[in-house]
């Protein structure tokens, strides 16, 4: 890991205007530099591109007319060619070749109420969705932008806020209004997923709604954030899991508190090892592990 | 909406005389209370939240400098089935009337309702609140509650 300059800060580069209502989420295209997607309560998705010449961002496409309510979240497929969107209208849409003559949209309509989140696995062969109906769905990605339901996972007792596939293995993580994080794993390649672990208050978990999850680049650590005003770090023995001997549980490493005084909605672990959290107190906090072996209580600082 | 009222005989409290103020520019307990005191009770639309002591001047905590408002309301009965509607209406009214910098928290007075924790958690979840407010029937109900007669 390269040495970090400890003077971390954020400088606003540009304000992108266009959406006419609250913007709920943004996603960087993983395969193309300088491409960003955003989704909004205005029922649209906007694609923004950075000019290689001027370095400024402009809106290249507006995806509209499909969702009939707020678009809450979105995710690019690993190839960067497909964009999945989750909406309060209960549908998940997967867009291909958008803003061209061959644009195609697949509409997955199964959730009984608002869809909150969508996530692609590392290879792009599976898509997961979740929503207020407390369920998590796994879809198999077929050719021609077709999808087949592979599993319907129930277990959360409340609204599921986010789903996220592990960065290297087909293990699915979900977090919820029921204050827990659930981990779903399939023993074999036939996709029989079960909940193999629940991280709740008894495992040093959160005491209120868990809003977001993010993994470090190696996939052996994860960070979560909550309405309980804390950010928590978790770890697992990734090499043991990769041997295929079975599931290895995640354990709590430490809890970061006192940095936000309102609900923490979003947390993300960058490839360089910086964690960022965003909260209802209108601030973004950045954290770096000052010690390469993250052992609690190691000082995470702004 | 249910035709069975949970509180058929609500206690109606005498109206307090309303002070007039010349300075309406800053937000304080007085102006925040004024914005919400006349919200109609969903079960008894001829009565306001102030009439029923669901809201009193003590219900409001404001810090204009720190940009927050906290409203603590008392449902008329511990098992009243509409505290979420009341709380949501208060929240909507304040968010509509106050500058965008304000953080508004609406909660049930401690010990005053069976479902206090459930209601408080729902009112505190901005995603759930936003989604609920996309329901036209609910919005129509809230608008009725906010009609000043």
From TrEMBL, chain A:
Among PANTHER family, the record links this protein to: CYTOSOLIC IRON-SULFUR PROTEIN ASSEMBLY PROTEIN CIAO1-RELATED, WD40 PROTEIN CIAO1
The family classification in the record reads: Belongs to the WD repeat CIA1 family.
Q: What does this protein do?
A: Essential component of the cytosolic iron-sulfur (Fe/S) protein assembly machinery. Required for the maturation of extramitochondrial Fe/S proteins.
Task: Cite the entry's keywords alphabetically.
Answer: Repeat, WD repeat
Descriptive protein name: Probable cytosolic iron-sulfur protein assembly protein CIAO1 homolog
Origin species, per record, is Arabidopsis thaliana x Arabidopsis arenosa
A Pfam family this protein belongs to? Answer: WD40
Q: Where are the WD repeats?
A: 16-49, 64-96, 108-141, 153-184, 203-235
Record's Gene Ontology CC terms?
cytosolic [4Fe-4S] assembly targeting complex
Name one process (GO BP) from the record: iron-sulfur cluster assembly
* InterPro entries per record: CIAO1/Cia1, WD40_repeat_CS, WD40_rpt
Automatic annotation (TrEMBL), chain B:
Q: Which UniProt keywords apply?
A: Chromosome partition
Family matches, as InterPro entries: MIP18
GO biological process, any: chromosome segregation
Q: Could you name the Gene Ontology cellular component terms for this entry?
A: intracellular protein-containing complex; iron-sulfur cluster assembly complex
Tell me the segments the record calls region Disordered: 1-43
Read off the PANTHER family from this record: CYTOSOLIC IRON-SULFUR ASSEMBLY COMPONENT 2B-RELATED (PTHR12377), PROTEIN AE7-LIKE 2 (PTHR12377:SF7)
Q: What family does the database annotate?
A: Belongs to the MIP18 family.
Put simply, this protein is called Fe-S cluster assembly domain superfamily
């Amino acid at each position: 890991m390269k040495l970090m300059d400890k003077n971390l800060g954020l400088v606003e580069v540009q304000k992108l205007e266009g959406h006419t209502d609250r913007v709920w989420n943004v996603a960087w295209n993983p395969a193309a530099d300088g491409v960003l997607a955003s989704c909004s309560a205005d029922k649209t998705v906007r694609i923004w591109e950075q000019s290689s010449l001027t370095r400024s961002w402009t809106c290249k496409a507006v995806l509209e007319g499909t969702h009939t309510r707020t678009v809450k979240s979105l995710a690019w497929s690993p190839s960067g060619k497909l964009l999945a969107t989750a909406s309060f209208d209960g549908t998940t849409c997967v867009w291909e070749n958008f803003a061209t003559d061959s644009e195609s949209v697949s509409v997955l309509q199964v959730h009984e109420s608002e869809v909150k989140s969508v996530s692609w696995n590392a290879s792009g062969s599976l898509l997961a969705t979740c929503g207020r109906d407390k369920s998590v769905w796994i879809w198999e990605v077929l050719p021609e932008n077709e999808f087949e339901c592979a599993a319907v996972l129930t277990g959360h007792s409340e609204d599921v806020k986010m789903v996220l596939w592990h960065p290297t293995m087909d293990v699915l993580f979900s977090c919820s209004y029921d204050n827990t994080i659930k981990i779903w794993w399939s023993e074999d390649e036939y996709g029989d997923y079960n909940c193999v672990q629940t991280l709740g208050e008894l495992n040093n978990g959160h005491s209120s709604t868990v809003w977001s999850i993010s993994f470090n680049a190696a996939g052996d650590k994860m960070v979560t954030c909550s309405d309980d005003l804390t950010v928590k770090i978790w770890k697992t023995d990734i090499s043991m899991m990769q041997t295929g001997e079975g599931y290895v549980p995640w354990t709590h490493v430490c809890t970061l508190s006192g940095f936000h005084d309102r609900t923490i909605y979003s947390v993300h672990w960058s490839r360089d090892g910086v964690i960022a959290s965003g909260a209802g107190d209108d601030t973004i906090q950045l954290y770096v592990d000052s010690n390469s072996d993250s052992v609690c209580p190691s000082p995470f600082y702004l | 909406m249910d035709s069975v009222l949970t509180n058929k005989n609500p206690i109606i409290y005498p109206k307090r005389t309303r002070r007039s103020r010349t300075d309406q520019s800053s937000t304080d307990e007085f102006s925040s209370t004024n914005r919400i005191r006349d919200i109609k009770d969903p079960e008894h639309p001829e009565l306001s939240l102030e009439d029923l002591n669901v809201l009193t001047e003590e219900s409001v905590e404001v810090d204009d400098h720190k940009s927050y408002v906290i409203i603590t309301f008392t449902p008329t009965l511990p098992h009243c089935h509409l505290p979420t509607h009341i709380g949501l209406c208060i929240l909507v009214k304040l968010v509509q009337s106050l500058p965008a910098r304000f953080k508004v928290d609406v909660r049930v007075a401690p010990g005053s309702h069976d479902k206090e924790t459930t209601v408080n958690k729902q009112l505190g979840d901005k995603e759930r609140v936003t989604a609920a407010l996309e329901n036209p029937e609910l919005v129509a109900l809230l608008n009725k509650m906010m009609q000043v007669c």
